Fold this sequence. Notes:
alpha+beta
Amino acid sequence: MKGLHTLRPLLFSAGMTLLLVMMAGWYLPGRVIFNYTDSLPHGVYLIRDIRTCEHGDVVVFPVPQHVRKLVQDRGWLNEGDMLMKPVLARSGEECCMRDGLLVINGRTVSRISATDADGRSMPVTEFCGTVPDGMIIVGTAMENSFDSRYFGPVAVSSVTGKAVALLTWESGRQDRQGSHGNEQEAS
């Protein structure tokens, strides 16, 4: 029984934190989703309305139609899950996805992997030029993050909101398919 006494404060704190997050979801305008992937910190995010997509905004959007089957066949997402990624480039900026690199405005942002964590080939998006009007480039520096490097620019009109962290923690896991963008709506 001695071990239970030392766990009580931890369990109480975890329970109160969960209760506060749930209450925030009920009282704050927006939806609450849970991110369980490694491309962003794990945790609970409030999804707010967004008028414009700015650099660094973490935006939420459905999986682009042309890669939806791939994502579901590989088990990276549950049907209806959304992607949640930071904005790297906006309309009018220069972006190049070629030769295994993502370069934005002349600066190398990240590598582009030819295969996923299980060795399966990834889609190839060769785009080099000005980001078109009404489009954004999304992604992270993580090679395994499933983002614009693999599906191209995202229509701003498909963005359903901006994610604001309510409670996050680092997973400690930097491998496998968890970094592909699996976000689960909690409400």
